[in-house]
């Protein structure tokens, strides 16, 4: 991922847990279920602040988290440091690029929760990532990850170039109030990605205000494109869902969730 400059700003890591406390997604329970049934070590790519990793560790799983951002990993390490010692000793954190990594370990399960795979813009990056995962998986090991189901108007309609309110104001423990919006900064239909902006309006207890912007490219993928990529890289899709309740994929599904098994 590092070859196109994507890296979280420090302020994004600072707001992340409050902003993305989305119990309605039900993805944490989903990934914990696969980790507890994996029968071995789990590797989570794009672990961020540990939103999924920490609950997975608390469920008794041995897990390694890898992330590119030092700011996100700092938050994650702070959370892990507060865990009971018997849980901490089963958690390992690494800074690295999910498109090109080596941990020296073998895993029964690799997960990529909440769409980090879509930060890989080129086919070369996507294949390198999948090849790295394949090398790190045990025989018959599994890869589980989600990407969003493309909503076509969002990919072409100029109205999405304007800021859109995402959620109500959030009050942080230190008294700051954060309002989040987002917008598409540019469409790149020929290359199948958009430039995205996460915009944070911060109001401080003393009345000061600040506008902070996190920019990044976001690749969108389609079902059979992903299946073809997985096949090229030595995987077979064994389960496929449209949401974290394991519902059947349909036209209206918000997610595309792939469970792929290592072949060969």
For the residues shown, what is the average pLDDT? 95
Indicate the percent of residues in helices.
25-40%
Per CATH, the superfamily of the largest domain is: Vaccinia Virus protein VP39
Largest sheet: 7 strands, mixed
Query: How large a portion of the residues is in β-strands, by DSSP E?
Result: 25-35%
Radius of gyration: 18 Å
Terminal Cα span: 27 Å
- The coarse silhouette is globular
Structure, explained:
The protein has 264 residues and is of the alpha/beta class. It folds into 2 domains: 2-149 and 222-262, Rossmann fold (3-Layer(aba) Sandwich), CATH 3.40.50.150; 152-219, Single Sheet (N-terminal domain of TfIIb). Helices cover 27% and strands 32% of the residues. It contains 8 helices and 12 strands. It has helices spanning 10-19, 27-37, 53-58, 70-81, 85-88, 123-136, 152-156, 223-232; strands at 42-45, 63-67, 91-95, 107-112, 137-148, 164-165, 170-171, 177-188, 193-203, 209-219, 235-241, 255-262. The strands form 2 sheets. Strands 3-2-1-4-5-12-11 form a 7-stranded mixed beta sheet, sandwiched between helices. Strands 6, 7, 8, 9 and 10 form a 5-stranded antiparallel beta sheet that branches. Helix 6 links the parallel strand 4 and strand 5. The longest helix has 14 residues, at 123-136. It is globular and about 60 Å long. Residues 1-6 have low confidence and may be disordered.
Layout of helices and strands:
Blueprint (H helix, E strand, L loop, with lengths): L9 H10 L7 H11 L4 E4 L7 H6 L4 E5 L2 H12 L3 H4 L2 E5 L11 E6 L10 H14 E12 L3 H5 L7 E2 L4 E2 L5 E12 L4 E11 L5 E11 L3 H10 L2 E7 L13 E8 L2
Parallel strand pairs: 1-2, 1-4, 2-3, 4-5
Antiparallel strand pairs: 5-12, 6-8, 7-8, 8-9, 9-10, 11-12
């Amino acid at each position: 991922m590092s070859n196109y400059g994507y890296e979280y700003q420090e302020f994004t890591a600072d707001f992340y847990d409050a902003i993305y406390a989305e119990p309605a997604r039900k993805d944490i329970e989903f990934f914990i279920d696969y980790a507890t049934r994996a029968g071995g070590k789990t590797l989570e790519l794009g672990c961020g602040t540990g939103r999924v990793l920490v609950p997975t560790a608390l469920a008794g799983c041995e897990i390694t988290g890898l992330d590119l951002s030092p700011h996100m990993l700092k938050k994650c390490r702070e959370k892990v440091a507060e865990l009971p010692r018997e849980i901490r000793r089963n958690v390992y954190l690494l800074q690295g690029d999910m498109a090109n990594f080596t941990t020296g370990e073998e895993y029964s399960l690799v997960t990529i929760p909440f769409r980090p795979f879509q930060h890989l813009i080129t086919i070369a990056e996507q294949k390198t990532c999948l090849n790295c995962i394949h090398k790190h998986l045990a025989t018959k090991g599994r890869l589980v990850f989600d990407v969003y189901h493309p909503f076509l108007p969002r990919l072409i309609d100029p109205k999405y170039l304007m800021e859109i309110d995402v959620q109500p104001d959030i009050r942080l423990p230190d008294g700051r109030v954060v309002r989040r919006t987002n917008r598409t900064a540019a469409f790149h239909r020929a290359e199948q990605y958009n430039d995205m902006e996460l915009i944070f309006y911060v109001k401080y207890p003393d009345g000061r205000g600040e506008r902070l912007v996190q920019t990044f490219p976001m690749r969108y993928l389609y079902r059979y494109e992903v299946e073809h990529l997985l096949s090229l890289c030595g995987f077979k899709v064994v389960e496929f869902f449209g949401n974290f309740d394991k519902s059947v994929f349909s036209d209206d599904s918000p997610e595309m969730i792939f469970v792929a098994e290592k072949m060969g």
